[in-house]
Amino acid sequence: MKIKTLIIASALLAANFGYAAPHKAKPAPAAKPARQAASPAGQEGGIHFSDGIAAVADNEVITRRRLAQAVADAKANLPKDVQIGDEELTGQVLMQLVNQSLIVQAGKRRNIQASEAEIDAAAAQNPQLKHLSAEQRRELADSIIAEKVRQQAVMQNSRVSEAEVDRFIEQAQKQGITLPEGEPLRQYRAQHILIKADGENAAVGAESTIRKIYDQARNGTDFSGLARQYSQDAGAGNGGDLGWFSDGVMVAPFEAAVHALKPGQVSAPVRTQFGWHIIKLNEVRDAGTPEERIRNSVRQYIFQQKAEQATAELLRDLHSGAYIDIR
Predict the structure, then answer these.
(1) How many helices (H) and strands (E) does the chain have?
(2) How large is the average pLDDT for residues 299-323?
(3) What confidence score (pLDDT) does residue 6 get?
(4) Is 106 in contact with 149 (CB distance < 8 Å)?
């Protein structure tokens, strides 16, 4: 059984973000020599060249054996109503593997890691992953790193303002479009203070700093003032205000900390891939009126569009500077 990373559902990642699977090698940029893709010993990360090379993505070799397994996984998980030829499916899966590899390599360059605790927690969520081989643990670690990189890109570029919701609704009304009333969702309004940590060494200093800020916050110092003074997040000028958000928008450790709070409480320091946070929960509500449900549906729609665009931009940036060779 293989660990599934950026898994194919009704549409593949390669198709979603506009990367048609190429059938010819993409040469390295003229001014940039191709990087060595494998060790002199003839293997990379325990993968032998005898497997056959399907593609090279910067410093990683994607073998034909790995591609064949990924194609088999894709076929097993395709919805029954999706029809796709073997050649097209193989091309899209291969580009998915290339994208996955580029994202993971980018994460490792940024010192983004998957801890043993994170790997164990992810494995515990799936009974089929109870007994992981060393290779499966590496794959699961890579999937965690990739998701952290993607979440960084999404969270930095996908915040939705109330003004954006207003404009969307106004435009729909002008065009005579009736917006569907969404389901009521639990929503949270919170503030946070972020001290960034790009690596393990930086995380130690960031933790020390955030704990000193936390001591001030729990002793009654104005949270908004602390955020404006110390937070390294883009919303620091607004007192760290995150506006209203629903479950599934924030990264998992942040969301778990919010769930543990009551309005008015400040969380203990929380670590995410962005650094160290403290969070103040201000209000909780169920968006229950027709207007609130519509606004929430619009907000979620805009967020999803921004998230997809952020992921696409991430992939475009990685592709623009990468050496990719499709065999």
Answers:
(1) 10, 9
(2) 92
(3) 34
(4) yes
**Cα–Cα nearest to 16, from 103, 99, 106, 105:** 99
Judge whether 312 and 17 are in contact, CB under 8 Å.
Answer: yes
Does pLDDT of 279 surpass 60? yes
* Cα distances (Å, whole numbers) of residue 220 to 214, 217, 267, 276: 10, 5, 13, 20
What's the whole-number mean pLDDT along residues 79-94?
A: 89
Beta bridge pairs of residue 55: 62, 326
CATH numbers and ranges of domains, the chain: 53-157+308-326 (1.10.4030.10), 160-181+289-302 (no CATH), 185-287 (3.10.50.40)
Answer whether residue 324 shows pLDDT above 50.
Answer: yes
What is the three-class DSSP state of 246? strand
Q: 244: which strand partners?
A: 189
Q: Which amino acid is at 99?
A: N
Distance between alpha carbon 321 and the CA centroid of its chain, in Å? Answer: 20
